[in-house]
Design goal:
The complex is a heterodimer.
Chain A: H1 4-40, H2 57-64, H3 66-97, H4 104-116, H5 119-129, H6 136-142, H7 159-184, H8 188-196, H9 201-212, H10 214-229, H11 233-238, H12 250-260, H13 264-295
Helix pairs in contact in A: 1-13, 2-13, 3-7, 3-10, 4-7, 5-7, 7-10, 12-13
Chain B: H1 7-34, H2 39-42, H3 57-66, H4 68-99, H5 105-115, H6 121-133, H7 140-164, H8 168-176, H9 181-192, H10 194-210, H11 213-218, H12 226-234, H13 241-261, H14 263-270
The chains are: A mainly alpha, B mainly alpha.
């Protein structure tokens, strides 16, 4: 043990050197870039960033803009539905697959295919499937159900749900695979014990299996959440933010103000708000995850 | 499943699962089918399923109009480049975190991962400024570096979980035999973690291949990859669905084919290493 000590110190130095590029990256690019954006959100930069401080003016304007409020509302609806539905559907599919069906590997690959496609392709394909004249609506009407009416992309009130369908199609397969991995990790003895005690299957899932899968749920939630924050490509490809501004999302708002509206300060303020929103979610989560682990 | 599963239940579950599988695969199938139709058949009401005159016309038009192969090359260069660069940085980092953990390792790891949650628009403008300043706008190098940075947290996290499973004793044995740190990583750790590295590579290639936010914003023509190629078909002519389908099929085919032949890596990679 005594001989190992200098070795350990030496290895630690090496380890630190090995980790330097990564730490630098995270520090310079993410933290540096984000701080820069936050600082310039207090200026009235137009076409180019400049240091003319205007305090909270950009933020007042931001919250006074209807388009921003629509964008926030859309993101909240999309986010909440995405989390709930993809978890529920993903879990049910995983429980179904856990019965050891045939050709399981092929099935898994097919369910994961949508996730391997870009949001751009997903958006285009669904723009078309949801088109009332050639898509699902026309197919079902052709099958004899004449009054079938489903054209979310042309209805400002429900357009975000049209986007949600495409999002679910893309992401649920992934959730299912993660859940399946979690289910397979559950000790078979637990199932046996539950059966011996005469606990019905659904109760075993809800009260025993799901609580045991907490880590899997957390991983899945993080992946879903990072997808929600990034919601941009899908909107651009599927609806372009329309009809009107009905399917706008914060990322698109920021982008439009920065590059089309030539109002950088406003874009920076909006992205700072997004950052704040993310922090509100991340900090309690990180605290629970880590704080918990450290105490153990 | 050790739990007794009756044959009947198995059949029902299989049938149900496959119905869902086909429903999920349907949009992809329809896109591929439509790409072989004429524009008139593509928007026929009621839709034609298989009984149409198959044509390659759409593919010819798309290739002629926007040189598919140039976009394809750009996509390959960017995806492979950012993956290789990312692995070169990530392997040493993941090694240090998995085998020489310090007090702060967990914190650093969580911090890295949490950056993935930050909205990308927040760092968009600084990066555009840096790109213009270095005169790198619309170049492969810029996209390789930016996409590598964006995916680095995920690569490191995945490699870390794979490295964690390798017994330290083996690395120590190599060291006892006088292997230097470099050869320890290159000749002992890397080969042992190869399946994990392969899945990580595949995931990263797919993520880079599909990345649209950065590629659309940091390129104009020279370095534009396939995402820009499809995006260019989305708006102006709106209703040319057969051509749009051909363009989409061309853009997704490489991923679908690659994924089919490496199903195991695909599933492992896309689930971030959760499925072993």
């Amino acid at each position: 043990m005594a001989a190992a000590r200098p070795m350990r110190l030496f290895r630690n130095i090496n380890a630190k050197i090995a980790a330097i590029p990564m730490v630098l990256t995270a520090l310079v690019v993410f933290t540096g870039g984000t701080i820069w954006t936050v600082v310039y959100s207090f200026t009235n930069s137009k076409l180019l960033p400049r240091e003319k401080w205007v305090g909270l003016q950009q933020y007042e304007r931001l919250w006074g803009t209807e388009r921003w409020n629509v964008a926030i509302e859309n993101l909240l609806i999309y986010g909440a539905c995405m989390v709930v539905f993809s978890l529920v559907i993903g879990f049910v599919l995983a429980a179904l697959l856990d019965q050891k069906i045939r050709f399981e590997n092929t099935f898994r690959t097919i369910l994961l295919y949508p996730f391997a496609l870009s949001f751009i392709v997903t958006g285009l394909v669904w723009q078309w499937l949801l088109n009332p004249d050639f898509g699902i609506q026309s197919v079902i009407q052709a099958m004899g159900w004449e009054s079938f009416d489903f054209d979310p992309l042309y209805n400002a009130d429900i357009v975000i749900y049209g986007v949600l369908i495409a999002g679910l199609w893309q992401g649920t397969g992934l959730v299912m695979c993660l859940m399946l991995a979690g289910l397979r990790g559950i000790d078979q003895e637990i199932w046996k014990a539950a059966r011996v005690d005469g606990i019905p299957m659904w109760k075993t899932y809800i009260f025993i299996v799901i609580p045991m899968m907490r880590p899997v749920f957390i991983t899945t939630l993080v992946i879903i959440a990072s997808g929600i924050v990034r919601l941009y490509d899908l909107i651009v490809a599927q609806t372009g933010g329309g009809p009107g501004i009905a399917s706008d999302v914060p990322a698109k708002y920021v982008y439009d103000y920065m590059f089309q509206g030539q109002n950088l300060g406003q874009g920076f303020a909006a992205s700072t708000m997004m950052l704040l929103a993310v922090l509100v979610v991340i900090i309690p989560w990180a605290y629970l995850e880590f704080g918990g682990k450290k105490r153990v | 499943m050790a739990r007794a599963v009756t044959t009947q239940r198995k059949v029902i579950a299989t049938a149900a699962a496959w119905t869902i599988g086909i429903a999920i695969f349907f949009p992809i199938l329809w896109t591929v089918l439509t790409s072989f139709k004429t524009e008139a058949q593509a928007i026929a009401d009621p839709p034609v399923w298989f009984g149409f005159d198959w044509t390659l016309e759409n593919y010819e038009v798309v290739q002629e109009r926007s040189n598919y192969f140039r976009f394809l090359m750009n996509s390959v260069i960017i995806a492979v480049g950012s993956t290789v660069l990312g692995l070169l940085i990530a392997i040493p980092s993941a090694w240090s975190m998995a085998f020489v953990p310090g007090k702060r390792t967990k914190d650093v790891l969580m911090w890295m991962l949490s950056t993935k949650m930050l909205p990308a628009v927040g760092v968009l403008f600084p990066i555009v400024l840096i790109a213009r300043f270095l005169d790198l706008y619309d170049t492969h190098i810029l996209l390789i570096v930016v996409l590598m940075l964006m995916n680095l947290p995920i690569i490191i996290w995945m490699l870390y979980t794979y490295f964690k499973e390798i017994p330290v004793d083996i690395l120590e044995a190599a060291r006892m035999d006088g292997a230097s740190l470099r050869s320890e990583i290159i000749y002992v750790l890397t080969p042992m973690a190869l399946p994990g590295i392969a899945s990580t590579m595949l995931l990263n290639i797919i993520l880079a291949w599909n990345e649209a936010f950065w590629t659309l914003n940091l390129t104009t023509t020279k370095a534009a990859p396939l995402t820009a190629f499809i995006a260019s078909y989305s708006s102006p002519e709106g209703l040319f669905y057969a051509k749009l389908s051909a363009a989409s099929t061309m853009a997704i085919a490489p991923i679908l084919i690659m994924g089919w032949f490496s199903q195991k890596q695909l599933v492992r990679g896309l689930t971030f290493g959760a499925v072993k």
